[in-house]
Automatic annotation (TrEMBL):
Family that this chain belongs to: Belongs to the short-chain dehydrogenases/reductases (SDR) family.
InterPro entries named among the record's database cross-references: KR_dom (IPR057326), NAD(P)-bd_dom_sf (IPR036291), Sc_DH/Rdtase_CS (IPR020904), SDR (IPR050259), SDR_fam (IPR002347)
Identification of the protein by name: 3-oxoacyl-ACP reductase FabG
Cross-referenced Pfam families: adh_short_C2
Domain (Ketoreductase) ranges: 7-190
Length: 246
């Protein structure tokens, strides 16, 4: 079902992992997608376009740069004529205890996840308000809900995205713009491969559905939030964690 035909979206951090899966779901739905990432965007866009029926274009984008984020929004309008969907997905981790974490480590993670999310939401809304429509999805984490030792920066940033989502949803709703968030749990990405096997086993045992998430699990939920199927949903936070931390 090509429910995104004629639609145009931007996905940050889309060169791989969850972001790539989200971009793929949009392209497979017929959309034009701007793959925005600090590296690998062009290669990812070429691969996605080959899958079709939509198409993708790559753009180098540092989400902490106001100019880069604005350029990503402009690229959507240039290549597709509108900006219907925006996904703030870019992120990374720099885990360590507070005793060892430097101010630079803390700020770097806050800047990419939270400041980048705010810049993306603001840039998208500036275009969408003129159209009278649009959907924005922020990728948070269950870490925002529970906190993780060694992740004071990451947990704080992801919690901040929830506040941003709810405030933006209230601010932009009357303009026809919906803003929602997704909180993935443990999903098979290079990020979780860094965890020790015993930690992974313990977390798996605490997951009612008995498996780790796949990037497609998150992408399917994001696609729903971007689509007209969720037309009366804004300010919502959907947890995609197999029941862990429900």
């Amino acid at each position: 079902m090509e429910e995104f035909t004629g639609r145009v979206g931007v996905v940050t951090g889309a060169a791989n992992g969850i972001g790539y899966a989200i971009a793929r779901s949009l392209v497979n739905g017929g959309a034009t997608v701007v793959v925005a990432d600090v590296a690998g965007a062009d290669e990812a866009a070429r691969a996605l376009t080959l899958e079709g029926p939509g198409k993708a274009v790559g753009i180098r984008c540092d989400v902490t740069s106001e100019e880069d984020v604005a350029a990503a929004a402009a690229a959507a309008v240039e290549h597709g004529g509108s900006l219907d969907h925006w996904v703030n997905n870019a992120g990374f981790t720099r885990d360590m205890t507070m005793r060892r974490m430097t101010l630079e480590d803390f700020r770097a993670v806050i800047d990419v996840h939270l400041v980048g999310g705010w810049l993306g939401t603001r840039a998208a809304a500036a275009v969408m308000r003129e159209q009278g429509r649009g959907t924005i999805v922020n990728i948070s984490s269950t870490s925002a809900k529970t906190g993780n030792p060694g992740q004071t920066n990451y947990s704080a940033a992801k919690a901040g995205l929830i506040g941003l989502t709810k405030a933006a949803a209230k601010e932009l709703g009357h303009l026809g713009i919906r803003v929602n968030a997704v909180q993935p749990g443990l999903v098979r990405t290079p990020m979780i491969e860094k965890l020790k096997p015993e930690i992974l086993e313990a977390r798996l045992a605490d997951t009612p559905l008995g498996r780790f998430g796949e990037v497609e699990d998150v992408a399917d939920t994001v696609s729903y939030l971007l689509s007209d199927r969720s037309a009366f949903l804004t300010g919502a936070v959907i947890q995609v964690s197999g029941g862990r931390h429900m």
